[in-house]
Each structure stands twice: as C-alpha cells, then as structure tokens.
Amino acid sequence: MKRSWLISGAVVVSMLLGACASGTTGGDGEAAPEGEEELPEVSGGEEILNIGYTGPLSGPAAFYGENTVSGVRMAADEINEAGGFEVEGTTYKLNLVTYDDMYLPNEAATNARRLVQEHDTPIVFVPHSGGVFATQVFNEQEDFLIAAYTSEPDILTQGNELTLRIPPAYDQYPEPFVKYQQERFGKKLALLPTATQYGKDWTEELVPVWEEHGGEVVYDGEVDFGKDTDFFPIVTNALNQNPDVIFVGGPSEPTALLMKAARDLGFEGGFMVMDQAKFEEMDGVLGNYDDIEGAIGMLPILNSDALGAESFISSFEEQVDRVPTAESAFNYQAMYVIVEAMKLAGTVEDPQAIMAQMDAGVKALDEDKFVWHLTGVENNGFDWMASIAAIEDGEIVLIEE
Fold first, then answer.
1. Does some domain include residue 335?
2. How far apart, in Å, are the Cα atoms of 305 and each of 166, 299, 326?
3. Domain containing 11: what range?
C-alpha cells in the first residue's frame, strides 16, 4: 500500500496544537526550537509536503551544515510565499524538516529513516558523502530520493537509482588544476589537505594526474583541522622540500590561515584548493586575496553571471546575514528543480517518477532561478558549467577549461 506523504489544510490546526517534531522550519526561514514544529500557512484544499534534511547543525561542521540547509530553506520559503505549487490540480506548500547528524554517517542514516517514517518525506537532503553512502543502503527499499550534496563521484557508482548528486563531482578538477599550476609555478608538489576521508579521496584523485603531467610529490602530509591550530611546524616541514605548489583544503577559515602561514614563511608558489574551502570565505578571514595569490579553486557565487544570481545573493545576505557560497546556492537551485520535476511527473509522492523528470525539471526552470549555469541531469548528477577560478593580481579570474 502506498503511504500518504501529505498533510491536508484541514488538519493543520490540530497538528499545531499537538505534540510536534523537533528541528523543523516554517515560513520565517529560521530553525525552530527543539520540540516545536512550525508549518506554512495553508487554506482549504491546500496540502503540506514535508521535505527532509539531515546534516551537521552542531559541532565543527555546523557552519557548513547551515550553509547547505539555508539554501533549501530559502527556496522553500520563496515557493510558499508565492502561493505554493500545483500538481494535478492540488496546491502544495513545503515544510522543511531538519535533523542534526553532527556529520556522522550512522546518525545521518538514522535521521533519514526517521524523516521518512515519521514525517513521510519523499526526498531527504544529505550534505556529506558518509551520510549518503549510509542512507543508500536502504533508500530504494524504503522508496525515497536522496538529494546528495557531495562531490564524491562514487555515490553514483552504487547502482542506486534514487540518488541525485547536486554539486559537480570533484574528479573534474584535477586536470585543469594541475595544468594551471604546473604552467604557472612548477612541478614540485607538497600535500597538506585535511586529514578527513574526503581529503584522502581528493588526494588519491589528484596525485596521479600531477605525476602524469611530469610532476613529483616532494612532501606528503595532512592536517587535522579539528586538533591542529598552529600550522607553522607542518608548513615549515613542507617548505623544507622546496615545493612549487601546495595542495590544501578543508574548512575555509583554517585553510586560509594555513595558506597565510606558508606566505609568512616565505612561500611564493601556488595553491591548489579542494572544493570544500571557498575563496569568498577566505576573503572574510584574510581581508583580501593577497596571501592566496596564485591559488586555484572554486569560483565564488558572488562572481556568477547567471540571471538569478544577483537576486539570490541579495536575498540571502539580507535573510541569513552571511556571504552565500556554492553550498547554499546549489541547494537553493536544486529545491526549485525538484519542484519542477514533481510538476512534470504529476506526483509529489513517487520518487522514481520525480527522478525520471529531473532533467526536464532543469530545462523547465525559470531563468531567474538559475544562480549558476545548469544544463541538465546526466547519470543522476546535475550537469553544471565548470566553475573554476584562480587568484590573479588579487582578483578572481574564471578559468576556462
């Protein structure tokens, strides 16, 4: 029997008066307190559709988690304020239900199951690869779609037809990164990425490309940003090997401080920055781009020329009071695409039918909702235009592949 995904307008009042789930959001765009649920306003005949999110909302990765969920929340609020969306003659409004998984895969899986079983969410946003892999174990059997915000390529090699990868896969970056750095600075590389599994996976993807282009790795290290706060000793060890380029990455703030430490110690070469760290957030830490001159990484959304970027940036800064990053922007656009796919599929409760219309949903999306250039869906992943940038003479420069 197909389970019900929806809450009708007729029962909303009684739900508001009853016991409610923790960590949900409503029309004000703010996270609700524990034990309280806020629902969007509906009139007779309208339905509420729950959308799930499990991600790090506390602990060291909380800032990242808030960046991702803020984009989903902002899109849901805008859709509701515009009167919702119509599928097969019924108008729906979105209720974002969020759970904190502290960046732990097992917690993400538990939360996803709770979201589906207790809140009937046909879609669950999961913004880290460990959580995605853990949830892929059962999402097809339990019939819900994972909206995966991770650039880990292997999430789409599991044969899971109900996984949508939102950001570009990181395996597209090593080739242009390596060519740019070797041409500009040289072929000796020091490795100083984050000590997480994501950092290890990135390194395994990058090093063979570096060596295929005639480069050598002269220092192989890593940084535990959860423990290390004084970067001078490990950077000194790396610089003793006279690298031309340093590979770095992790949370933006400590990554920026590590790069500054290298400059303070006399390093004049280039940096390859994995996609977790963002130039726009580094700017907020360093005050300018002088200390990361010659770095190559992700183009900031602030520099996007897509038609919907300016409006998104302005609204995000006003509502969230921080600089928007790719995490917030891409999840914002993804929520809009998913709604378009639901409309085209003629259902809000059949994840397979919705997934089948995702490519058409991209093409149906109004241009003023494009914060970056998205052409469609290929092999269950969004197909974005490359967004690689370098710091040249203190300015952000788009790197064309």
1. yes
2. 20, 11, 14
3. 6-170+306-384
Same domain, 197 and 295: yes
Structure tokens at 392: 């040249």
Q: Residue 298: phi, psi to the nearest 5?
A: -90, 140
CB 181 within 8 A of CB 270: yes
Tokens of 288: 């300018």
Q: Are residues 252 and 119 in the same domain?
A: no
Question: Angle 11-126-65 (CA atoms, 0-180°, nearest 5)?
Answer: 95
Q: Within a domain: residue 329?
A: yes
- Could you identify the residue written with the tokens 């969020």? 98
Q: Are strands 295-298 and 123-126 parallel, antiparallel or unpaired?
A: unpaired
Read off the pTM: 0.86
Strands 47-55 and 90-100: parallel
- Bridge-based pairing of strands 6-8 and 90-100 is unpaired
Percent pLDDT > 90 in the chain is 81
Q: How far apart are CA 227 and CA 251, in angstroms?
A: 13
Residue 59 pLDDT = 84
Q: Are 341 and 354 in contact (CB under 8 A)?
A: yes
- Between CA 263 and CA 27 the distance in angstroms is 46
Residue with tokens 């460990």: 130
Cβ(26)–Cβ(70) below 8 Å: no
User: What is the DSSP pairing of strand 145-148 with strand 188-193?
Assistant: unpaired
Strand-pairing partners, residue 211, are none
Both structure tokens of 185: 């600075």
**DSSP 8-state assignment for residue 269:** S
Number of domains making up the chain: 2
Looking at residue 131, its pLDDT comes to: 95
Give yes or no for a contact between 162 and 144, defined as CB atoms under 8 angstroms apart.
Answer: yes
| Cα angle 94, 99, 101; round to 5 | 145
